[in-house]
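Dear support,

Our group has been running a series of protein-ligand predictions, and this particular one with S-adenosylmethionine is the one our PI (initials K.S.) wants archived with full inputs and outputs. We had some confusion internally about which version of the output was final, so please treat the block below as the authoritative record. The input we submitted was:
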Amino acid sequence: MADLNLICGDALTELKKMPAASVDLIIADPPYNLGKDYGNGSDLRASEDYLRFTKDWLTEAKRVLSDTGTIYVFMGFRFIAYLYAIMEQDCGLHFRNWICWHYTQGIGKKRGFSPRHDDILMFTKSERYHFDLDAVRVPQKFYRSVNNMRGANPGDVWEFSHVHYCNDNRQAHPTQKPEGLIERLVLASSRPGQLVLDPFSGSGTTLRVCQQLGRAAMGIELNADYVAATQRRLAQPFTGFDSIDPRMKRIPNDLNDEAVRTAYLRNHETWFLANHGNAIDEFWKGVERKYGLKRKP
Ligand SMILES: C[S@@+](CC[C@H](N)C(=O)[O-])C[C@H]1O[C@@H](n2cnc3c(N)ncnc32)[C@H](O)[C@@H]1O
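Confirmed final output from the archive:
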């Protein structure tokens, strides 16, 4: 059973109480300062206050991160450029990736282009860090003997739809993140049993993912209602993460050799759908359409 710890409090205050170098991975999804209602006025500060707050919590985040640790920070369009500069120049973290999360649907704009992505910056504390590519590969489009059929690198543009109101796992939180997206961060940048920290845990997505992936996790959240909702969420039975990169259900073309195809289809579920039991039926419907095969009981 994963060791999960949830604190109702302020991220900066709680980070200051934590020992240095005690966390292996930080996944931070702070307020973007765009005026969202988190029930605490935390998302509408003067720009200078917001930037000072960002620098303060990131300074503490760096201190608690292990020397081989990784930090991912989500950000919207308004402050992303400032965030990059704070992480690299002010905090002295090491840049690794600028990930674009394409969320497909959202609010419309009449004078300008409708926003359809958030960014996720990946930095490490040093040049020595853990990254498990095999744990996050995506299925190839075609079978080719020269292709690595264990899968391709997912790249740095990721499509995950928001968790819609009709989704069984939708929580009463305005900016709930997709579990499938957080799953990729956790699998790539931590080992089983390691400690993952989410200093702005909201509806508890990171804790829920860590619970299922056998990581220890600590969440900090200011709003007591969200803390209580997270506790209820963690007690729910698990049937699969609430979202998936559509590529994970992709069935490669040209799996023409029967032995190759049989071996590949057997592996696909454990390689790509291991935590997505709820996507297996759709995957096999696709296999039937493409290759006329049904899943063996
Ligand atoms: C963008 S949301 C996080 C959403 C989360 N990733 C999820 O999937 O539900 C930011 C959260 O930070 C919380 N928050 C705002 N200021 C905070 C602070 N100083 N310390 C801790 N939490 C804070 C808000 O209440 C909100 O729930």
